[in-house]
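Is 2-phosphoglycolic acid placement plausible here? Inputs below.
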Amino acid sequence: MPRKPIVGGNWKCNPVEHAKLPDLVKNFSGCDEAILAKCDVYVCPSNLHLAMVHDKFNAGIMVTPQNCNFKGCGAYTGEMAVDQMVDLGLKCCLIGHSERRGEFGLPTPKESDELLATKAAYILEKGLLCVYCIGEPLPLREKGLDALMAEAIIPQLAVLVPLLKGLEDKSRLVIAYEPVWAIGTGVTASPEQAQETHKAIRDWIAANVDQKTADEVRIQYGGSANAKNAPELSACPDIDGFLVGGASLKPEIMDVIKAIA
Ligand code: PGA
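Reply from A.M.:
I modeled the complex. Tokens:
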């Protein structure tokens, strides 16, 4: 079975005014049944806004939290439980964004690979699709593919091996490869760089999980993806979609979706 493309819009901590939400939702109104039959689409509103808009999108668009806790409901101040997502009818949760892994030097504790593996297991156990972000900082990109795989990508992937092995439907764990140096910078990985890294990720999964998983798992590209670069990136055989930040707050998100759908 060919892999179904998947595109996500990550609104991060935007917009300031909730009055802008209807316009942001409208940017996705072109996702009709025909498009959604060819491409999975998810949108990550900010935590505060998610419950206000989760029933405002076209049916089939997955409204997706940008984080979850590791356990369930109870005494976890400031957290969101997957059980609550299930209750709201949500189908997908994103975790491990580099902005939560501490790449930008925020004065908050970094989320570790072990914590993220616990979250991923919890998401999958509750029946949701899990988008798991990985990526490398610029100094490792500059050292070349072998170094960035060994020092950044493989440690982030290794914790997923038992999960991927146990997963019957491999499409439920989506890997979002987002080079940190390309996020929000306007610098996109070239199609050659992105394809080479996606292929290295898939080859590593083939060697360390199995070939079936490598063939079926979807790997999205993220980092300044937009209407202009999406067609060329979509043509790369190992790129199965996009995780889009800035451009997902604009009407051009539909062009990114159409490029790969
Ligand atoms: P960007 O963000 O498209 O604005 O670079 C992508 C992301 O961080 O998910």
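Short version: The pocket of 2-phosphoglycolic acid is lined by residues 10, 178, 183-184, 222-225, 243-247 (CB under 6 Å).
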